[in-house]
Write a structure and sequence with these properties.
The complex is a heterodimer of chains A (592) and B (183). With 592 residues, chain A is α/β, with parallel strands linked by helices. Chain A has three domains: 181 residues, Rossmann fold; 166 residues, TPP-binding domain (Rossmann fold, 3-Layer(aba) Sandwich), CATH 3.40.50.1220; 171 residues, Rossmann fold (3-Layer(aba) Sandwich), CATH 3.40.50.970. Chain A is built from 24 helices and 20 strands. Chain A is globular and about 70 Å long. With 183 residues, chain B is an alpha+beta fold. Chain B folds into two domains: 87 residues, Alpha-Beta Plaits (2-Layer Sandwich); 74 residues, Alpha-Beta Plaits (2-Layer Sandwich), CATH 3.30.70. Chain B has five helices and nine strands; from the N terminus they run βαββαβαβαββαββ. Classes of the chains: A alpha/beta (592), B alpha+beta (183). At the A-B interface, loops of A face helix 1 and helix 2 of B.
Chain lengths: 592, 183
């Protein structure tokens, strides 16, 4: 059956098999790319995929790769990512990406095959309780036992994944449902009466927020991934509101790019490894305007010492985020875009003159002078910070997307790579999934075939999903895997140095592969660099190579990531350079 | 913030861990497979308590079920429980029965008491006072059916203890609000 007849079927008879319903529904939802891995319980859907060419299927090497690729696709396009995997191990391998997408509010629809309905509960081959397993780590999930419910369920899943606070939705489809014939219904009119996320801010909350903003002498914007999720328009409005108010602005790891890093009022990232000026501004401000962030423990540090003198406005689309960690004075439950628009309109209309905040800005300049991200010069070896800095300088004028794994390299990337636009920075913030970056890069590149996509990686993280290089080679996705190789699980090593008496228990990356040969074995291009003087030229070689590259950048081995707010400390107790470990008290050692 | 006087900062608000309170929540949900699992799973995943739980479909046409949960927690925790419940896709509404002050709570219990002679007569006499009905009897035992607020049932079983209490089966709390309106 070709695409023509499928479309005809969809519009005329509207009778088709469950597998065809899946493809028709995905198409109606505008899906152009999906990531997956076939298996017994999804073969009918793969059969329906075979006879069409509207949806591109990227075959991965491990189901976790499909999930992270879908996340990378979603985060870089603003569209939902779609993954298709089989039952049992296929589904359990998807659990990490589902939990990851849940924590970072990434819209994703995961279709899993299931054993036939009459075998459910019998411990059949490749059976697992997918809805049971994913219930607590997905935004919602479904087991579809009747083909007549299938089309509506898929449309509903897309609605739920992409609206409100976005997240992953799982649809578990037994094999017999994929085979049986049912009626296709379109997405029009599909809605869920119990699911009505509030997106418009209440007028009195906006009025209260504006009153605080018009009176603030030491204000700061604290923005997060919610601004990116709200779409490019939200980033634009954020910039306009900042321009109108002149307030300084910091962002969480997830929010990088919503505000341009080149702006004079940009404070850098906030949090455990954030900028000195950002954390001090958060601590000393008299008004904090939180836009689409959730007061994560990596941001707040010690809760009882978090920004003690400030009033707080919190814009969040999820009411459960409000007052969860930090009590706020003005909660605004709304989509960031709508709330920013309302604040901007209100600010412009108001005739109240806002106080002069130049003294506050002078203070910020004094904090800036600390130059917290400075690092020692290369002494024969390449400093990891220097490597990221050169990578930034050589790629900033290109159409570039960055993903990362998790650890020291991730923080150095956040500190030394600068973003001007949203959706350019893909990282696992909430769950902290080592192995996210490489498959995410695959997903990003699939969505943006002509862009430069770089996974800034660590040699430990990248090995968790190394096999996806093969995916990149197969699908001609010219991703660049830039490994900051210090032969250590760097962040683990750093914590062991600071908190566990330099007892480096199992954190050395023993028996590393030769990454250049590994690249070649996969049919990709391998580059190794250990000399700072050759770095620029070799990065250029990586950029110019038309195909996937693994870049093994050998960096200073024992470099620590600073500045750092030790666990259990306040924002104004940042550590700037090498420390002995005594700075962290007993309470702090117990925290993660 | 518009109703109450504005504190100088959020940190002037009550931040000390306050004492735990007991709450009865009515959760109206779409009666779809797994919905009870979602609700219960949320409580265990986030470390909330469940003291009692009842559930049944209350509107067959709309597939609506009503879950009544009795929970304990600090005010902050209770606020979170409500917000987290509302995050679940099939949850239509959460009604705080305790806080509304217009709530009525009832529980039904079946109480088996075995005994002879004086104790048996005493058990029957107390049952009359509590308006408990005898729904099964043998020469040596009674089964009482009693409805009322939970503390009334607690009291009843306490009194039955020395008179030969054998077994208790309770439904858990059911709740509804006074007045003409729903919800």
């Amino acid at each position: 059956m070709d695409t023509q007849t499928l479309t005809e079927k969809a519009t005329k008879t509207r009778k088709m098999t469950g597998a065809e319903i899946v493809i028709a529904a995905l198409r109606e939802q505008g899906v152009d790319t999906m990531f997956g891995y076939p298996g017994g319980a999804v073969l009918p859907i793969y059969d329906a995929l075979y006879s069409q060419d509207e949806i591109r299927h990227v075959l991965v090497r491990h189901e976790q790769g499909a999930g992270h690729a879908a996340e990378g696709y979603a985060r870089s396009t603003g569209k939902p990512g779609v993954a298709l995997v089989t039952s049992g191990p296929g589904a359990t391998n998807m659990v990490t990406p589902i939990a990851d997408a849940m924590m970072d509010s990434i819209p994703m629809v995961v279709i899993t095959g299931q054993v036939p309905t009459h075998l459910i509960g019998t411990d059949a081959f490749q059976e697992c309780d997918t809805v049971g397993i994913t219930r607590c780590c997905a935004k919602h999930n479904y087991l579809v036992t009747d083909v007549e419910d299938l089309a509506r369920t898929i449309h509903e899943a897309f609605l739920i994944a992409t609206s409100g606070r976005p997240g992953p939705v799982v649809i578990d489809i037994p094999k017999d449902v994929q085979f049986s014939t049912g009626t296709y219904i379109g997405k029009e009119g599909v809605f869920k009466p119990t699911y009505q996320p509030k997106t418009e801010p209440s007028k009195h909350a906006i009025r209260d927020a504006l009153a605080l903003m018009k009176a603030a002498r030491r204000p700061v914007f604290y923005t997060g991934g919610g601004v990116v999720n709200s779409g490019p328009e939200a980033s634009k409005l954020l910039r306009e509101l900042q321009a109108a108010t002149g307030f300084p602005l910091t962002s969480t790891l997830m929010g990088l790019g919503a505000f341009p890093a080149s702006h004079k009022d940009w404070l850098g990232m906030v949090g455990m490894h954030g900028a000195y000026e950002a954390n001090h501004a958060m601590h000393d401000c008299d008004l904090m305007i939180c836009v689409g962030a959730r007061f994560d423990d990596r941001v707040t540090g010690k809760i009882s010492a978090f920004s003690p003198g400030s009033k707080k406005i919190h814009i969040d689309i999820d009411p459960s985020s409000i007052n969860k960690i930090i009590r706020v004075d003005v909660p605004i439950v709304a989509d960031c875009k709508a709330a920013l628009q309302a604040l901007l309109d209100g600010w412009k209309k108001s005739r109240t003159k806002a106080p002069d905040i130049s003294e506050w800005k002078d203070q910020i300049e004094r904090w800036r002078e600390v130059d917290c991200f400075s690092y020692p010069a290369n002494d024969g070896s390449i400093r990891p910070q220097y490597a990221v800095e050169r990578l930034y300088e050589l790629t900033k004028d290109r159409d570039t997307y960055i993903s990362t794994e998790v650890g020291q390299h991730q923080m150095w990337a956040a500190q030394h790579y600068h973003f001007e636009e949203p959706n350019r920075w893909m990282t696992s913030g909430g769950l902290g999934t080592m192995g996210y970056g490489l498959p995410a890069a695959v997903g990003i590149q699939a969505a943006h075939p002509d862009s430069l996509v770089i996974d800034i990686a660590g040699e430990a993280s990248v090995q968790m999903v190394m096999q996806e290089v093969s995916t990149a080679v197969q699908h001609r996705l010219p991703i660049k895997v830039f490994i900051l190789n210090n032969e250590w699980m760097g962040m683990v090593r750093q914590w062991q140095e600071l908190l566990h008496g330099e007892r480096y228990s199992h954190s050395y990356s023993e028996s590393l592969p030769d990454f250049v040969k590994l690249a070649e074995a996969y049919g990709a291009h391998g580059i190794q660099c250990s000399d700072p003087n050759e770095l620029d030229q070799k990065i250029q070689e990586m950029i110019d190579h038309d195909g996937p590259v693994i870049f093994d950048c050998l960096v200073t081995k024992a470099e620590n990531c600073f500045p750092m707010i030790p666990s259990g400390a306040a924002h104004n107790e940042m550590l700037l350079g090498s420390i002995s470990g005594d700075e962290i008290d007993e309470e702090g050692r117990k925290l993660v | 913030m518009s109703q109450e006087p504005i504190p100088a900062s959020a940190y002037d608000m009550d931040h000390v861990e306050s004492a735990e309170e007991r709450r009865t929540l009515a959760v109206l949900v779409d009666n779809e497979p797994g919905v009870l699992g979602r609700v219960v799973g949320l409580f265990s995943a986030r470390g909330y308590n469940i003291e009692s739980l009842t559930v049944a479909e209350v509107d067959r046409g709309k597939h609506r079920s009503r879950i009544t949960i009795v929970t304990t927690g600090t005010p902050h925790m209770l606020e979170q429980i409500e917000a987290q419940l509302l995050r679940l896709v099939p949850v239509a509404a959460v009604i705080d029965i305790t806080k509304s002050k217009r709530g009525i709570e009832r529980e039904l219990a079946l109480v088996k008491v075995a005994g002879k002679g004086e104790k048996r007569v005493e058990a029957l006499r107390i049952a009359e006072i509590f308006r408990a009905r005898v729904i099964d009897t043998t020469n040596e035992s009674f089964i009482f059916e009693i409805t009322g607020a939970s503390d009334k049932i607690d009291q009843f079983t306490e009194l039955m203890e020395p008179l030969g209490l054998v077994e208790v089966s309770r439904t858990g709390v059911l709740s509804i609000r006074r007045g003409k309106d729903a919800g």
